[in-house]
Amino acid sequence: MTRIRLISALLGAAVLAACSKDGVKSIAGPTAGTYIKFYNFGVNAPSVNFFANDAKMTAVSSTSCSPPASPPDARCTSTGIESTTGTAYGSLGNAGLYSSIAPAQYSFTGRISATTDNGLAVAKLSSTLADGKYYSLYQSGFYDANAKTVDAFILEDAFPAQIDFTTSSVRFVNASSNSNPMTLYAKNTVTGDSVAIGSSIAYKNGGAFLAVPGALYDLTARYSGSNTGVIVRTGVSFSASRVYTVSARGDMTVVSTTATNRPFLDNTANR
Length: 271
Prior knowledge:
By secondary structure, the chain is mainly beta. It is 6% helix and 41% strand. The strands form 4 sheets. Strands 1, 4, 5, 8 and 9 form a 5-stranded mixed beta sheet that branches. The relative contact order is 0.14. Mean pLDDT is 87; it is low at 1-22 and 25-30.
């Protein structure tokens, strides 16, 4: 019996050790005191891996080690083989999940994940993370292909103190750098009732989380003093007891309804 338990323990340790592959910060142990998620909403920006100081917070694993290469690649049992995919424009790192990190001051960077210019920091931002809080870091604005730079900002995700199981909580973030301040409106597709999700929000800012009945909504972002929707998204579901961030991204001058860099309202569940 003792021998079986020892083997099981060793197998468990091997699984936890695998969590540090690809150079991504391991979260196999006890969680740290603060949490952060990463958005790549920089128009025309390359795919990146996000770093806190020199700790890699996001990456995409490669399948190069499955099945094992012949001869074996030493990286499969050490740092791991990392895909060059990274976090692409319009996507979130780590599938939108929060990463745990110790509360401290950090230099955050978004570094190119592709083979060309691999590791080059295109977005740079310094911020102090407080214990017990949640944050969202946005790579935003327009990518400058000559300077190889793009903008970034960070917001605290100040969730409601208590979970309301009868309503959802929603906030609006403006990550579109060539937009005017916008207000987000949500229209219930069943009742026809429309509600403003906070006030007018300028670029690099976000509103507070507001209670909204759980339902299916059509979303419209409007400039201040106008009834015309500058960004529209239909059929967005807000479930009761859940928390959501609706973010505006893209180039406001694009009129195509299919272009990758068109104005768009992203809906991400925070919890």
